[in-house]
């Protein structure tokens, strides 16, 4: 994307400086409309190749699957900074456990301090496992830091391109990829850490509403594809709405957030369930 050279430079620097002496390849995926020219002193064990890919995140990931060499493929976003032992821990622990799909930890790197009134909603911002107090709050796969073994058994054998940033539905492509994996060799690697930049526009309640609205739509779509009942998701949305009515410190914000989740569920059900014959591919 335009204007992200600064993030990309920090990301590449952190990967180039990894405590990892084996040979590996970095695939820098360029947007068709924006091309970065970033120069580094590259160690002998690292090769950097650049490819131009489609505008959606899923199409970029699929092109990586086509071009990547080696036993494992690791995916990171351009706005992360990896700890110096990130690569060693990801590869070593994945190999030791014979994992097919694995993911590390993402910690938030806020570009401005999060206000106290947003702290109760912090994890709804998305993109990290630990909160700002250093407490592990979730363990699921997050797309800014995960890896796969090449040529695993998978129903689709690629990421669905109707999900993900720049696609029909924003987000969820890595969640569906995990659900369509044929096997059980998955692993959360807590000590494979990246720090995920949380830009200023995301540290805002309006963004939280927007993000959760789209997450619910994405979940409706994913459930339809994998054959899970969306009625259970609907019950969860209604329960969260009911709980938001209980008098509490953040009553208004909880209520507004729950209303938008309900809107997202309704939109997803109408668009991707009632008319699924022409929507789902």
Descriptive notes:
- With 281 residues, this protein is of the alpha/beta class.
- The protein folds into two domains: 199 residues, Spore Coat Polysaccharide Biosynthesis Protein SpsA, Chain A (Alpha-Beta Complex), CATH 3.90.550.10; 74 residues, no CATH class.
- It has eight helices and seven strands; from the N terminus they run H-E-E-H-E-E-H-E-E-H-E-H-H-H-H.
- The strands form two sheets. The chain has a five-stranded mixed sheet. Strands 1-2 form a two-stranded parallel ribbon.
- Helix 5 packs parallel to helix 7 and helix 6 runs antiparallel to helix 7.
- It is globular.
- 30% of the residues are buried.
Largest sheet features: 5 strands, mixed
- Please write the string of helix (H) and strand (E) elements: HEEHEEHEEHEHHHH
The strands making up the biggest β-sheet line up spatially as 3-6-5-7-4
Number of strands: 7
Number of helices, where a helix is a run of at least 4 consecutive DSSP H or I residues: 8
Percent of residues in helices: 25-40%
Structural class: alpha/beta
Tertiary shape: globular
Distance between the termini: 27 Å
Determine the CATH topology of the largest domain. Answer: Spore Coat Polysaccharide Biosynthesis Protein SpsA, Chain A
CATH superfamily of the largest domain: Spore Coat Polysaccharide Biosynthesis Protein SpsA, Chain A
Rg, rounded, reads 19 Å
CATH secondary-structure class of the largest domain: Alpha Beta
Give the secondary structure arrangement, pairings included:
Layout: H1 5-16, E1 24-30, E2 46-52, H2 57-67, E3 72-76, E4 80-82, H3 86-96, E5 101-110, E6 145-149, H4 173-179, E7 186-198, H5 205-226, H6 230-244, H7 251-274, H8 276-279
Parallel strand pairs: 1-2, 5-7
Antiparallel strand pairs: 3-6, 4-7, 5-6
